[in-house]
Design a protein that fits this description.
Blueprint lengths: L1 E3 L5 H12 L4 H23 L1 H5 L7 E10 L2 E10 L4 E7 L4 E5 L4 E6 L2 E6 L1 H18 L7 E7 L5 E4 L8 E3 L3 H11 L7 H14 L7 H4 L21 E4 L2 E4 L5 E2 L2 H12 L3 E3 H8 L4 H10 L4 E4 L2 E5 L6
Parallel strand pairs: 1-2, 4-8, 5-9, 8-10
Antiparallel strand pairs: 2-3, 3-4, 5-6, 6-7, 11-12, 12-13, 14-16, 15-16
Helix pairs in contact: 1-2, 9-10
Length: about 325
């Protein structure tokens, strides 16, 4: 049973919006496009695993995707967590092409692709930390000591998996081996440690404690918020080229008209700049000189308001509900 499904991360949404809303230097744009491609690869890797997750016994498993749980002043993240009454299974998903060589001596992952070798952090070491921290979380919340297993799943079926000679067997496999691996864990852990009621309680508590991470991409890529390209974006041609004419938005590029194009642009403002906006700020953001027009548009959205120095402040969070 899926308790929390896999969804695109806020990071993916923010990267897409910044690429659309900012005029970036070529090197910065390329870096952001590569970051977006990596993030999308991770998400698609999780999605591709869905078929194999569906083969697991539905009534016996509670499946939670993309958890980020606080631990002291830090957080630990889990790609996929499978809960059963006898054991838990943490899955770290890697969507990587080429040949992967797991160096267990120096705890590194080497990837060879198109005759180029790259080195990455060791996902097996990452799983060790995740397993330890999940056990600490369970102990802190006074749950019984249940076995916690972990495995790295390589979602690309054409990827070759290797390890350095003489090392112990890897806890790494392809997506197609998830079901037999799960059955092996079932045979190893036949004693029920938790009741079904306790299992559901743990799943609810984990999902409730999940903390969404909003990365500071402005700092990461040295971008200034005020450099945003202002105006209303056309959902037909994707250009920021709409003007307000006779109670409609008209695109100067493709000729498309819309009555509600400003709503998406206000959502983008909320994601990129601020979740609150004044009439003057809205005039500037949408590039509409008439305050009366903007007051009409904002009031028609029935947004919650507050007062700041005798000015109405509109709360844009309501656009996402």
């Amino acid at each position: 049973m899926i308790i929390k499904d896999a969804t695109e991360s806020p990071k993916i949404e923010l990267l897409r919006l910044i690429l659309k809303r900012y005029s970036l230097e070529m090197t910065v744009r390329r870096e952001m496009e590569l970051e977006l491609a990596r993030s999308l690869a991770g998400f698609k890797g999780e999605q591709s695993l869905q078929y194999h997750l569906n083969l697991l016994p539905n009534e016996d498993c509670l499946i939670i995707h993309d958890l980020r749980i606080p631990h002291g002043s830090y957080h630990f993240q889990l790609d996929i967590l499978i809960l059963t009454t006898a054991f838990f299974l943490i899955i770290e998903v890697k969507n990587m092409a080429g040949t992967l060589i797991f160096d267990r001596e120096f705890h590194q992952l080497h990837r060879i692709l198109n005759n180029i070798e790259e080195t990455f952090p060791d996902p097996i070491s990452q799983l060790y930390r995740q397993t330890f921290l999940l056990r600490e979380w369970l102990k802190r919340h006074q749950y019984p000591n249940i076995p916690v297993e972990s495995i790295v799943i390589i979602s690309n079926p054409n990827t070759s998996i290797k390890s350095t000679p003489g090392e112990k067997p890897l806890t790494v496999t392809h997506s197609s081996n998830l079901l037999p691996t799960f059955h092996t864990y079932q045979k190893d852990h036949q004693h029920e440690v938790l009741s079904r009621k306790e299992l559901k309680k743990i799943s609810r508590q984990l999902v409730k404690q999940h903390a969404i991470r909003l990365p500071d991409l402005y700092q990461q890529f040295s971008i200034k918020k005020e450099d945003i390209i202002k105006g209303v974006r056309c959902d037909g041609c994707d250009n920021i080229s709409m003007v307000r004419l006779k109670r409609k938005w008209f695109c100067l590029q493709c000729g498309q008209t819309s009555k509600s194009a400003h709503v998406d642009s206000l959502k983008e403002y909320a994601r990129l700049i601020s979740t609150t906006i004044t009439t003057r700020e809205c005039c500037d953001s949408l590039q509409v000189p008439s305050q009366d027009c903007i007051k009409y548009l904002l009031s028609s959205l029935q947004l919650p308001t507050s007062q700041l120095k005798r000015k109405n402040v509109y709360h844009l969070d309501a656009l996402f509900k």
